[in-house]
Amino acid sequence: MNEPLHPLTLSEILDRTAQLYRARFLVFLGIGTIPAGTVFVFAAGVFAFFLWMGVHQKNGGTVADSFVWTFLILLVALAIPASLAASAVGEAAMSDAAARLFLGEMITIRSAYKATWRRGWRYVGLYLLQELVIVGAPSVIFFAALFAMIAGKVRGVATNDNSPLFAGLLFSLLFILAVFAVWMLLRLCLAFPASVVEQASAWSALKRGVMLSNGSRARIFLLYVLGAFLSQILVWCVTFPILVAVALIPGLQGQAHAQTVGVVVSFMTYSSYFAVKALTKPIYGIALTVFYFDQRIRKEGFDIEWMMQQAGMLPSPPVPQPAPESASPSPAQETPVVSEPFATPNLVAQSPDTISTNPAVLEPKNKEGNV
């Protein structure tokens, strides 16, 4: 966008998010479809396998347990790494595209994924760290406490106690862990924009995310609440017409087709969920990137730094001078130098003879502006 940078309110951030999404709707939708589609393909594979197994057994056939377990193990072994990699790279590609468009550059699906592909392991590590802190640690604590409480009741602890103590403790623990997960999400949600824009490592990006999110977590929480309501509304808007259409098909009415109707409805419900996820994922990615720049403007004066960069007022590093001919190595000692193409275009517009030392800048781009 070519608008002047300045601190934004929550309504202005939401408006800017809508503008960016509308300006490149197909690009952001394509970026969000790749990770959501990857997860959907494996989920559809599991659904189709169980459907085939049910039909096969209904027709009098048998399915060996060894075959079922082998299929499930192979599917999990493929689904977890593929879904993890697609989600991590997709998150980074979304932040990259949103940052470039926010600063006025052109974006494409190919350039966004190509810019993040070379550093894919960094983003996978960052995604893993986020999931371990937000989801993994609370889950381990919950199941450990659940196992301890069940073991206590099995051994006869409070056997004659008819009070809902067990359910109350379980609900309280679940509530506390849910609050902890949301709190950590609000602290770490700006880590991906920080890692992409500043080319920071996974651990450094987590620390930057915690620092930048301080003072704006209530607004980010409202963003997540609004996004959750929007997702639920869209899911029902997609699912309800499907349920009505299936119920009105004459060939699927009656008890004989009840199982078929249930299968169709379940599949269409899951399909609509993944479609809505691909549609709403860019909203979070764009909004969090706008929050990232807004916090840098508030805390670090990024708007002033940006104007200086645009005017070419930032100092450039000294240009290295060529060595004298007498000090040049002999032809036998010379080693060929292979120039590596730039992997990531510059996020900040530069003058032709100025190379910025701004940490918000990625890498220089070529003459055509392509990756």
Structural class: mainly alpha
Percentage beta strand: under 5%
Total beta strands:
0
Instruction: Kindly report the average pLDDT value.
Output: 77
Major sheet? none
Count every helix, treating DSSP H or I runs of 4 or more residues as helices.
11
The rounded distance between the terminal residues' Cα atoms is 20 Å
User: Radius of gyration over alpha carbons?
Assistant: 26 Å
Q: What does the oligomeric state look like here?
A: single chain
Helix content: 55-70%
Described by the principal axes of the CA atoms, the overall outline is globular
Flag low-confidence runs.
316-323, 325-371
Helices and strands, in order, run as HHHHHHHHHHH
Description:
There is one protein chain. The protein has a domain at 10-125 and 221-314. It contains eleven helices and no strands. It has helices at 10-23, 25-58, 65-102, 109-117, 120-154, 165-188, 191-198, 202-213, 217-248, 258-300, 302-311. α3 packs across α4. The radius of gyration is 26 Å and the shape is globular. The model is unreliable at 316-323 and 325-371 (pLDDT under 50).
In short:
With 371 residues, the protein is mostly helical. It has eleven helices and no strands.
